[in-house]
Predict the structure.
Amino acid sequence: RKEVEQDPGPFNVPEGATVAFNCTYSNSASQSFFWYRQDCRKEPKLLMSVYSSGNEDGRFTAQLNRASQYISLLIRDSKLSDSATYLCVVNMRGGNKLVFGAGTILRVKS
Amino acid sequence: NAGVTQTPKFQVLKTGQSMTLQCAQDMNHNSMYWYRQDPGMGLRLIYYSASEGTTDKGEVPNGYNVSRLNKREFSLRLESAAPSQTSVYFCASSVQGAGTGELFFGEGSRLTVL
């Protein structure tokens, strides 16, 4: 079983739609969680951290469910510019080692 | 606003050749990292340097060596390239450890080994 698993997609949605991705992680002792965004042939960039109480930034909401060991990302009112790969990232053991999921592809169509 | 700069951006090698990927950051970050990214897989940590003068192995260190030349620079060397090392390599840096999650990545180096 992979340490961090994501549905690869692609998720094809129309502009204005709401879309949600989940990501599961294997280590119940994982300490911190993040979503990164990666545009095609570009470097990953931090989108948002995921806190135990949830985190909202504009149209983006991230949630953590420790009991079921997953995190989620909700995007409301999707824009064409949201088209990208979304990477789930978990700090499983503390220290310097982040584990990256393989990513979920989102395509927003007009 | 240079951030993290990697060179070269593209490289083609023959099996057995050696090369060094260079990385420099101008954000005064303590920690630096080398990752590789392959299709269908997440980024995998090759080596990292928590601070100047220290380096540690990551998940996939075999076939690679690193040097933290100073606080700004962290290089990755392939001594004898193999086709399995065909990948996109990303250098990253962070203020302290990766626990805060905010890594700043370079634009990537695309390496093909024939």
In short: The mean pLDDT of chain B is 94. Residues 27 and 104 of chain B are 10 Å apart (CA to CA). The interface with chain A takes residues 31, 33, 35, 40-45, 48, 50, 56, 58-59, 90, 97-103, 105-108 of chain B (CB under 8 Å). The longest strand of chain B covers residues 87-94.
